[in-house]
Amino acid sequence: MKNRAWMPLNVGDYRNDTSHLRAMGHGGYLLLIMHYWSTGGLPDDDQQLAVIAGMTEREWKKWRPVLQAFFHHGWRHKRIDAEILYAQARYEKRAEAGKKGGKSKGDAKQCLSNASSNAQAMQKHTTTTTTKKKKEDTPSGASASKSYAFESGIIRLVEKDFQAWKAAFSQLDLSGELVALAPWAEQQGPSRWFHAVANALNKRNREVKATKDKAQTDPAFRWNGIEGAA
User: What residues contact 131, with CB distance under 8 A and at least 6 apart?
Assistant: First the structure.
């Protein structure tokens, strides 16, 4: 993570741990921990620390013992170090999820592209509801029906397309979603239902994935106080 522009701060915990500081002490300490958060540490040099804390050398000499009590040897701060590691882990987790999400979108587009060549073939089997019922009542209709991996109303998918959709929309119970979409698909008509349903499934898949990710993600981490030297 290249940039940590946002630093968590729990005001209540901060005030409890720094109630003994005066305005200059608060200003210096906040500048020190903000620099620490942004860069990953502080220099062990009084002149540089005075500049970071916004103090003159005389002011720094007075406040140094008070502020140093919040840090460990070498101006290390265990709590901030832990928060930095946590922030880094969350960043990497989100980056990895983003890569997977991008791959899922690519798979969905590829699925639509591969399946489009079969749309016309399936449309030949799609007529009015009355005609479909008649065909399904005949032996030849029953035989044709067996060639579909899924069939509900106007939605008819051969094995190849059904498996492709199942892989692309892995967050869904595909059969259940298709059954629910069947009445709506009828309204789209023979020439439009295939792509309309695919787009609806793609949207629904993203929504379900986003909901699952949100439930699994840890609550936004917060500043749990300023830890003093052990």
Answer: none
